[in-house]
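Researcher: If convenient, please comment on what follows.
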Amino acid sequence: MWAFLAQELLFFSGLFVAYGVFRSWYPEMFSLASHQLNRVMGGANTIVLLFSSFTAAMAVRSAQLSQKIATRNYLLITIVCAFIFLVVKYFEYGHKFHDGLLPGPFFGTQHDFFTLPIPADAHVPHLPSNAHIFFSIYFVLTGIHGIHVAIGIGIMIWILIRNERGDFSKEFFTPVDLTALYWHLVDLIWIYLFPLLYLID
């Protein structure tokens, strides 16, 4: 598991390096484009993930104490938080699609792929023509992270089913522990993504 987590960190490190290189080449464009991201939604997702990381840790603690019901409850809360994160991300993506804030040749082209309550005055903001680079990086980083969140949901549902079967106790709780480690990685990556994409001017 630790080897897998190290591999994941190396994978995201390459993406962070790409972010750093392009940001150093186009600092003004990155600043203007980052203002199109919704900091409130990003901040809310950060709080949700931090809380879910806490509940994942509490699920491990409960499993260590053979507290089956508490383990189930903490796992359920973690799963709900993960779904909340994806729902918020869905609304964020929907707004970007509508305003044409998309990667590559799709930049500046509005799409209504999502049925969302888009404000009537929504419009394509005036940005440098190379702003598609920022949104390419944004969608790659947050998209891959979102896939990790979805995978985490699947793993936690599997752990939840095993917990209901009574597979875990103070003598054996390794799967719960490993799942929490994976979830902490997902949380850690977002802690870096949020300031890099949303906050740094």
